[in-house]
Structures are given as structure tokens and as C-alpha cells.
């Protein structure tokens, strides 16, 4: 036991006084480049057993990583592109704005402000038009919008979309499962909706942890392109950004935030013409409305249909429903 403790002390001492040999990227001997693994094997060759040799290598790798991060931080340069900015004043010139009294004035006279990321259905009509792809017809062709008609590489006159055929939408139960679980893996499966990821971070990590809890480097899990201190591609304009920078609090402190999720109760609705408040299935909650012709089974008492009503489990337009009702009355009178 005494010899083991003595060896661990020697490892720690060697890290403190370690020469540049271990940290130099291009170490050669006899005109042959020596890899990092070979250098570690040499440094830890006198370990008394396999376990201590592993510990020796781990300590050296940790030291190398720590020094690398400090070197990257020390070499931070002036941002050369918008992606390297962490505040609005830095972003100003990329919007062709001018800074006056600490405020960025845009060419149209408006002030550059912190962005608010909204759920798609909560956008105004003007905001939504910037992103609207177009509606899909009965044959899966995009029938309107800026990309219709659009000749594809396959020679089709229209882009086709298989809406509703693959995948499912995230349900509130899915979100509740994520938020009630401390494990990050369950959250990563739904990481595309970034507000869910941010909600999880705020609930389960403090401010410091949010910036440093990045997966450890492990070539058995991912290539070194995904390591915390690897250059963040494709933003390698000057090499200023590394992957772990994506966890910075500055993004949500100064550049953008997420709008609150939509809620409703017996008094207030969801605040969007594309949503309705479901009172029929437990606690009131906001759900997406259904297009005319879509199914509405189980929601007959709700305002589920967009510009229509739920009739016999199908959403029908208001005028069609009135016409059908008149025909029924006429038939009854006859």
C-alpha cells in the first residue's frame, strides 16, 4: 500500500514539473512523429501494475485537457463573424446598425433587441410568413407558398411532403417525463425543441454547472471533432469558438430567450387562432387545431376545428355545416 501511495505522489509531482515534451504536438524521434498515446506509455512505463498505469494516463490526460482549455481561453480574439458574438453591441455591425449611447440603431430606426423565440403557432401572421413553407394538397404536393411550383431534381413539378406519415408530435406527457427526470439522456432524445432542453437545464443545473457539464472526451463514443475543446464547426472563421462555448449563459442572458409555453384555464384561452383549450381530457391544456377535413373524434365539444366545427368526427367548414343542417331540416319537413 505504501508503494502505491508513493507512486501516486510521484505521478502528481511529474505532472507539476512535466517538460514540454508531453504537451508538444509535433514530437519526433529519428524523424518519426510520436503519438500522444506513445508518449503516455513512455511516461507511465514504470507503473508497478496495470491499474496504476491506467490511473497515470488518466491524470496526464486530465492535465493536458485542463492546460489546453486555458490556452484556448487565453487566445480568444476579437470576433470575426456574427457567430462569435455574445452581446448585441457586437452583433450590431452584422445588422448594418450604428451604436449610439450604448444602443444599436438599425437602418430602419428600430433598436436591436434581445430576440424572443416563440412557438411557431404563436407567431403573428407577418412573422409566420417568413417561415411558411406552404400547404400540402391531397397528393402530397406543396400547393402554395414561395416554393410552389418548384421543379425538383427528380423532374417533379412540385415538392412533395409526406405530412403525418412518419413520426409523432411531442405530447405534454413526454415533456413531463423529461422534466421529472434528472437524467440528461432522456432529454437529449428531444433536444431539437430547444426550449425543452433549456427548461431541463434551468431545472436541474445551477448557473455554473450549465456552462461546464459537457460530456468527457471519449473516442469510443464520438470522434474528437465533438470534444469540448474542439473547434465548433462550421463556425471556424478564426478558430475562436470551441464546442463547449455552446453552453454559455451569455446566449440566453443577452442574445435571446424563450417565450413562455402556452397555457389556458376555464377563463383564459391559448392566445392563438391555431390553438384551442382542451377542457375534455383532464387538466385544461393547449392543443393544435385541426384543418377542415381532418379528424376530431373525441373533441366534439371543443373548438378544435380551424374555421369550422366537429361534425360526426370530421372537421367541416361552417358554411358546409349550415348547408347540411338545412338539408336535414328540409328533408324532415317533406
Task: Summarize the structure in words.
This protein has 334 residues and is an alpha+beta fold. The protein has eleven helices and ten strands. Among the domains are: 2-74, no CATH class; 275-333, no CATH class. The protein has helices at 2-16, 36-43, 50-74, 88-91, 125-129, 172-179, 184-188, 194-204, 207-212, 250-255, 318-333, and strands at 28-29, 32-33, 98-100, 103-105, 115-117, 256-258, 275-278, 285-288, 308-311, 314-317. The strands form five sheets. It has a two-stranded antiparallel ribbon with strand order 1-2. Helix 1 (2-16) runs parallel beside helix 3 (50-74). The N and C termini lie far apart (104 Å).
Summarize, please.
The chain is α+β, with helices and mostly antiparallel strands. It is built from eleven helices and ten strands.
* Number of DSSP strand runs: 10
In which order are the strands of the major sheet placed? 1-2
- Spatial separation of the terminal alpha carbons: 104 Å
- SSE string, helix = H, strand = E? HEEHHHEEEHHHHHHEEEEEH
Structural class comes to alpha+beta
Helix-residue proportion:
25-40%
Largest sheet entry:
2 strands, antiparallel
Would you identify the regions where 5 or more consecutive residues have pLDDT less than 50? 7-27, 325-334
What is the 3D shape? extended
The residue-averaged pLDDT reads 77
Tally of DSSP helical segments? 11
Using only C-alpha atoms, the radius of gyration works out to 30 Å
- Tell me the strand percentage band: 5-15%
